[in-house]
Amino acid sequence: MTLIDNLALGFDTALSATTLFWCFVGVTLGTFIGVLPGVGALATVSMLLPLTFHLDPTTALVMLAGIYYGAQYGGSTASILLNLPGTPSAAVTCLDGYPMAKQGRAGVALAMTTFASFFGSCVAIVIIANFAAPLAEVALRFGPAEYFSMMVLGLLAAATLAQGSPFKGVAVVVIGLVLGLVGTDVNTGMQRFTFGIPDLFDGLNLVAVAMGLFGVSEVIANVGKVRAVSGDAGKITLRSLIPTRDDVRRSWFPMARGSGVGAFFGILPGTGSSIAAFMSYAVEKRVAKDPSRFGKGAIEGIMAPESANNSAAQSAFIPTLTLGIPGDAVMALMLGALMIHGIAPGPRVVVEHPQLFWGLIASFWIGNIMLVILNLPLVGIWVKMLQIPYRILYPSILLFICIGVYSINNNAFDVLQVVVFGLIGYGMMIMGFEPAPLLLGYILGPLMEEHLRRALLLSRGDMSVFLTRPISAGFLTATLLLLAFVTWSALRRRGQPSPAMVGG
Amino acid sequence: MRETRIDIRELLAGAFTIALGAAAVWIAQDYPFGQLRRMGPGYFPTSLGWLLVALGAAIFAGGFLRPGLQPRPEWRNMIAVLAGILAFALMVERFGLIAATAALVCITAAADRESSLRGTIILALCLIAMTVGIFVYGLGIPFRLWNWPA
């Protein structure tokens, strides 16, 4: 089949009334929670995961994806108006977005970031449509050794490229791997780490783990801290949205560079939109003729990161769908959703479920157009959302978490798991762990064990199989290079005092 | 936040990691280990457990090498939020959805110092109406709404 045939199939699927409806629900909800500080895409996707069990897998995925990239659009709103990022990936947008708002240019900033988001998404969609299928074809030839090495690379990238200490990052991933092993061992039927509790024989509940780690711990950390915006900041007129000719002229190259940076980090397994946004801001500052304008309301400083985080959010689907390796924690949840629907993630998805794959891609385009319509004329409504006080919001969030988890199996034990993982998640936050990679480990744990077992069974216990097969050796070399880079940059940082310490 | 001579956060994180790793190794002792060419169910968890112990030791040691900030957990938030969810879990089957929702909202509201009794009760009533409307009548999820054990 050619690309045109595939896209035709995709649009055929995506333009059906049900899919359109759920796509709209997804992007609207995504924008909503993206705007609200203190509620992330991760928490929302996990909260709504149970609802999608009643839909068919394509529609479910279309909606969940809509939440994810919709949140990237909404995230910049709070950054610009409140200097408070609505989502972590919009944190960089505060640096120049908030100064623009103080200069009375909030409307321009909001309109231009919407455009940047759209641009970044379009670039990424073109890349997915052209490269995902060939990549899946290569991946079809992977054996267990290749898979195992690729997972090692992906998990280490997720663990070490996030902020903080590399040791802690790796520890979080390994904790996730162990948690993934809870339940019945597929090879021997043995119960592992179940403490004799029958509710654990099928493993920990993915949604309960995700909501406890991200939803509940986020709420605990935010109560009493998140402030609603008062009165005036909420006034945005349609006229104030129009940028000057100079704004537009300055925006093209940062947008193009941002989209490229975003696509790169999106495709790289284990890294996601936050890293992409930070990197693209750094790139702009380096190539700018006058770097001193940054931080004082330079339009380049909002265009690049906003196109980068959208481009990354979209292209993160490439490793997720073609290799079965999630790019970040939200993608891990998407894989979880696929598995719950009985679809084994991996390169076969593209071949065996073309309707799902191409339908999803087509829905990206439709969803992004919906988002532009939602964000430009309706920006005033989203700004009003910022006035909802957190003391009303957080009990509602917790209630939806409880009901969502309970309704999966009608089992109160699953809600108890939320309590336990809420405690663990908040504890990890206090101890300075970044909990997001845990979910990657949790999803990949059983797969990794399976591939390791199979690879060594085929080679009769010979460990060198991971080095003699060229693709596997390539992944392991990349892993080594990554570790060398991380060690090098950690050593370089040790030489200088860290910024937090200087201030204290 | 108070500055400390050694990084307490790292010491806690290291100890936590070591404890988890040791627990994994200890529990996995009961599972057949097997050999490289034919791994038993204990092989992978035991290896991961030892890896965690090693990583934890490295994190723990790093804590002595640099100053840090005293961690300040929000005890009040944590207890109120977790107790509210726990109440929901324990009550939803025995007392029904309405009572469990009321308990969740009232207990978690204690986390915010600014919340008032009146506001909390109004919020609880609104949320009960919403959840019953959306989840029970809208989506048809079979919840037991009200129950009083004899």
Q: Provide the number of structural domains of chain B.
A: 2
Computed CA radius of gyration of chain B, to the nearest angstrom: 24 Å
Q: What is the count of structural domains of chain A?
A: 1
Structural class of chain B: mainly alpha
Polypeptide structure, described:
- The complex is a heterodimer of chains A (504) and B (150).
- Chain A has 504 residues and is mainly α.
- Chain A has one domain.
- In chain A, 72% of the residues lie in helices and 1% in strands.
- Chain A has 23 helices and two strands.
- In chain A, strands 1-2 form a two-stranded antiparallel sheet.
- The longest helix of chain A is centred in the first third of the chain and has 35 residues, at 106-140.
- Chain A is globular.
- Chain B has 150 residues and is mainly α.
- Chain B folds into two domains: 3-69; 75-138, no CATH class.
- Helices cover 63% and strands 5% of the residues of chain B.
- Chain B has helices spanning 8-28, 43-64, 75-91, 97-109, 117-138, and strands at 3-4, 34-35, 38-39, 68-69.
- In chain B, helix 1 (8-28) runs antiparallel to helix 2.
- The radius of gyration of chain B is 24 Å and the shape is flat.
- The mean pLDDT of chain B is 88.
- The chains are: A mainly alpha (504), B mainly alpha (150).
- At the A-B interface, helix 8, helix 9, helix 18, helix 19 and helix 20 of A face helix 1, strand 3, helix 2, helix 3 and helix 4 of B.
Keywords:
heterodimer, A: 504 residues, mainly alpha, two-stranded antiparallel ribbon, 23 helices, 2 strands, B: 150 residues, 2 domains, two-stranded antiparallel sheet, 5 helices, flat
Secondary structure topology:
The complex is a heterodimer of chains A (about 500) and B (about 150).
Chain A: H1 3-14, H2 17-35, H3 41-48, H4 57-82, H5 93-102, H6 106-140, H7 144-161, H8 166-180, E1 183-184, E2 191-192, H9 206-222, H10 245-267, H11 273-287, H12 300-315, H13 317-323, H14 329-340, H15 348-352, H16 354-375, H17 379-385, H18 390-409, H19 412-430, H20 436-458, H21 465-468, H22 470-495, H23 499-503
Antiparallel strand pairs in A: 1-2
Helix pairs in contact in A: 1-16, 2-4, 2-16, 3-4, 3-9, 4-5, 4-6, 4-12, 4-14, 4-16, 5-6, 5-12, 6-10, 6-12, 6-13, 6-16, 7-8, 7-20, 7-22, 8-20, 9-18, 9-19, 9-20, 10-11, 10-12, 11-12, 14-20, 18-19
Chain B: E1 3-4, H1 8-28, E2 34-35, E3 38-39, H2 43-64, E4 68-69, H3 75-91, H4 97-109, H5 117-138
